[in-house]
Amino acid sequence: MEQWITEVANNYGPLVYLVILVWTFLEGETVVLITGALISGGNVNLHVWTLVLAAFLGSFGGDQAWFYIGRKYGTPLLARWPNMSKRVEWAFRLLRKEETIFILTFRFIYGLRNISPFVIGMAGVSRVKFLLLNLLAAAIWANTFAWGGYTMGKVLETYLGESSRLILGILVLVVICVTVVNKIRQRFRTQPLPPDQASAAEEKALTGD
After folding, report:
1. Which of 10, 60, 156, 157 has a Cα-to-Cα distance from 192 of 20 to 30 A?
2. What's the chain look like in SS3?
3. What pLDDT, on a 0 to 100 scale, did the predictor assign at position 103?
4. What are the tens digits of pLDDT across the range 44-99?
């Protein structure tokens, strides 16, 4: 597995960065962490700073997109996906408690990464404020996990030697399996309402009843 990843990275380096950019646009930090760990071994033709840039652009772009979607279509979309209501309420509570800190840290709160910018947009936070704080937060996030993965790889190599490659390979497999399982679970949990129920839920959300 690790040999396959190494060959892909060495032969299609730019494509790997593009995949990371798209992945971080949609998802979280795991792919950045693992890629940083693989880079630390020196066997892949990738660079940490380019990894940071790809992760930053993906994370920043994804959250900006969700912010504007929430700002323009938040209430109707939320009415069609009622199973998200608990996470939305949780995000709203944290946002009301400390707006600036929440915007800077929601990426690090498990379960809130994707829903938070959507909620922030719904809450009417200033576009300029979110843009500036999102820039800062995305930069901190990308550096934390890219360099965190790199450091983790160095530590494994120091203490486990050649076995560190096996551990990283196993870690990659575990991450892939967990990602697939979570995607399947989320798809079943967030099935949209039938049209008649969705219309009723939307009306309720708009009127505040």
Report:
1. 60
2. CHHHHHHHHHHCHHHHHHHHHHHHHHCCCHHHHHHHHHHHCCCCCCCHHHHHHHHHHHHHHHHHHHHHHHHHHHHHHHHHCHHHHHHHHHHHHHHHHCHHHHHHHHHHCCCCCCHHHHHHHHCCCCHHHHHHHHHHHHHHHHHHHHHHHHHHHHHHHHHHCCHHHHHHHHHHHHHHHHHHHHHHHHHHHCCCCCHHHHHHHHHHHHHCC
3. 94
4. 788 999 999 999 999 999 999 999 999 988 777 777 777 777 888 888 899 999 99
Give 11-49 pLDDT, tens digit per residue. Answer: 777 788 888 999 899 877 888 888 888 888 777 788 999
Instruction: For the chain, give every domain's residue range.
Output: 2-207
- pTM, full prediction: 0.76
How many whole angstroms separate alpha carbon 17 and alpha carbon 9? 9
Q: Are 138 and 23 in contact (CB under 8 A)?
A: no
